[in-house]
TrEMBL record:
Listed name of the protein: Tyr recombinase domain-containing protein
GO biological process: DNA integration; DNA recombination
SUPFAM superfamilies: DNA breaking-rejoining enzymes
GO molecular function: DNA binding
Keywords noted in UniProt: DNA recombination
Source organism phylogeny: Eukaryota, Metamonada, Preaxostyla, Oxymonadida, Streblomastigidae
Species assigned in the record: Streblomastix strix
Keyword Iron-sulfur set for record: no
Length: 273
């Protein structure tokens, strides 16, 4: 074992020794006890004492005390025992990944500078806002893993976007804060307009060609498929043209399903089955 590692472990063994002295546990009595139960009792005893460094001492006791007990009883790592793991969850000993800066304010400064220098329309400004968030995470050697529309919070003064990035195997949450700007070029207003149903690109195209909203869904595609089949196109050709799965016949089955008889009507009329 590395001497430096052994020195660090010995430096934290005094917590376990204090527990033995307080509970009057000698070596003979310790040999008759279970290692995992002893460690859980030590964690409970230390948590009851409290103090400013209680959480740090609990983590040290779980790690170094568990190794010391494992060496004494000649068993595997005690800190990985089920009851020790359960106690660690109760005391919240797991180290949580936290971002160094809770809010990324650089985005707001950069967007404010761009708005002051040039006039950008709403769609372009919204695209630049999302692109800056992706570029910011890439500049910090992180991977943007999640950014949901439902996690965008907009109030009177600012917009907060919750994103989740990954660095290695750790996932860290950030709050991207963007302030509202005066004038037409405002990224927050652009995002609000982008989130509206009326700004949906497909609905705009449907309105442009004169299709009512009630027929603007998948019905347009279904009508085209049935029309192609009417003029002799095969199932595979229709699926390839409409980008469906090669063997898909969901639409065909839906529109050509057999009409079932109403059994309740037959029962009331006394008809034959």
């Amino acid at each position: 074992m590395n001497p430096e590692t052994w020195r660090k472990r010995r430096a934290d063994i005094h917590i376990l020794n204090d527990f033995f002295e307080d509970q009057k546990i000698d070596l003979d009595k310790l040999r008759q006890m279970r290692a995992d139960v002893t460690l859980v009792n030590a964690l409970t005893w230390l948590n009851g004492k409290g103090g400013n460094r209680c959480l740090q001492d609990l983590r040290k006791l779980k790690m170094h005390g568990g190794i010391a007990l494992a060496m004494f009883f000649n068993i595997d790592d005690v800190s990985k025992s089920p009851i020790v793991t359960s106690a660690a969850k109760k005391f919240e000993l797991a180290i949580r990944s936290k971002s160094k800066y809770a809010t990324m304010c650089d985005q707001d400064k950069l967007l404010s500078f761009i708005v002051a220098q040039q006039e950008v329309n709403g769609w372009r400004l919204m695209d630049m806002t999302i692109a800056f968030i992706v570029a910011f995470t890439a500049a910090r050697m992180m991977e943007l893993t999640r950014m949901l529309i439902g996690e965008i919070n907009i109030d009177e003064d600012k917009m907060i976007i919750k994103i989740k990035v990954k660095k290695g195997k750790k996932e860290i949450e950030y709050n991207v804060e963007v302030s509202k700007q005066k004038g037409k070029n405002c990224p927050v207003k652009a995002m609000i307009n982008w989130l509206k149903d009326d700004e949906c690109m497909k609905r705009k195209q449907d309105r442009f060609v004169g299709i009512d909203q009630q027929y603007g869904g998948a019905t347009v595609l279904h009508v085209m498929m049935t029309k192609l089949k009417k003029y002799g196109a095969t199932q595979e050709e229709v699926n390839a043209f409409t980008r469906h799965a090669p063997g898909s016949n969901v639409i065909d089955v839906y529109y050509n399903k057999p009409v079932g008889r109403d059994l309740s009507t037959l029962l009331l009329s006394g008809g034959d089955f």
